[in-house]
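Hi, here's the filled form for the chain we discussed.

Project: internal
Contact: R.S.
Residues: 317
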Amino acid sequence: MKSFSIQCFIIITLMSFAPLIFAQPVEGIDVTIRFFEKRIYYLNQTDIAVKISLTNNGTGSYRFKIASNRFFNLDFDVKTPTNLTLPHAEKFITERSSRQHVFYREVSIEPGEEYSFTEILNEYVKFEQAGLYTIQAVFYPELAYQGSTFIRSNKLSLSIRPPVVSKEMQAVIEVETGKALEREQIPPDEVVTYMLHARQKSQWEKFFLYLDLKSLFLQNYSRANRFKKASQEAQQQMLEDFRNSLMLQKIEQAILAIPTEFEILKTEYRPLEGSVVVLEKFRYSDYTDVKEYTYTVRKYDQYWLISGYTVVPIRTE
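And the returned structure, exactly as it came back:
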C-alpha cells in the first residue's frame, strides 16, 4: 500500500534549473509518462496534460519526497527533430529561481506499487512553433537542486498543429478535441482527476461527463423526497434543472469550488463502489484554504461515476 507521512516538512532554498551534471539515476524505480487525454493539440490553444507514474520494481519499500509545488520534483526535456531543446516556460523559471518555502511530504511505495499524478506540460516548457517534438520527464525524488538524484522517463512523441485562424477551423477543432465526448473505462482516481481538471478550466461538458447527477441530486433529503413523489417526466425535468443550476453556480458550491491545486491521497474500491480522497487547496489573495474531499464512486456499465462527496476543512495557510 502507498503510505504518506502525516508530518508536513518545510525547506527554504534557492533552486536552480541548470543541468544537474553530478546526479545519478535511481535503481529499481521506473518513471513512465503518457498523455492524459487523446486529443489534437494546437499551438497556444490547448493545455497538454501528462500523467506521470512512479513504479517500484525493486525488492523493498521506496521512499521519496513529493512537493506541493511539483516544479520542485519534476522537469521536462523537450526536443525538436534536430535535437534542439525547448526553453522552459516563464512560470517554471519564476518558481524554480525564487527564494521560497517548499512544502513536501514523504511517500512510500511497496514493490509492484505505483504513485501517479498529472501535470500541464505547457507550464514547464515554452512552445513557440508548431511541429513534432519528443518529450521526456525528469523526476527528482529528493527534490531538485544541484547534484540531486533523478529518474528519466520513457519518451513520447508530441505533434502540435499551427494555431487556429478562422471560426470555421475553430468549429472543426471543437469536434476533434472533445465536443462529442465519450466516457472511457478509466479507474476512479483518473475519473476524479479528469473532473477536477475540467472544473479548473470551466469545461462544463467534461465536468459533467463522469458525474452521476441523479445520485448527487438525491444526496439532499428535501430534493430526494420531492423526487420520489414526482412523475417520471417531472423527475427528468428536476435533473435537467439541477444540471443548469450547477452551471449557473447557484447550488452545491463545494463541488463547484475551483482548486488551485490538488493531490490524490487515497483510492479504495471494490467491484462496484469505492472512494477517492483528495487534498484540495483554494488560494485567495492573502491565504490558502486546505480541505479534504472524499468522493464516492460507483460503477455503471463498466464506467466509474462520481456519486457523492463530503468535505472536511483541514487548515489555513
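Let me know if anything looks off before we file it.
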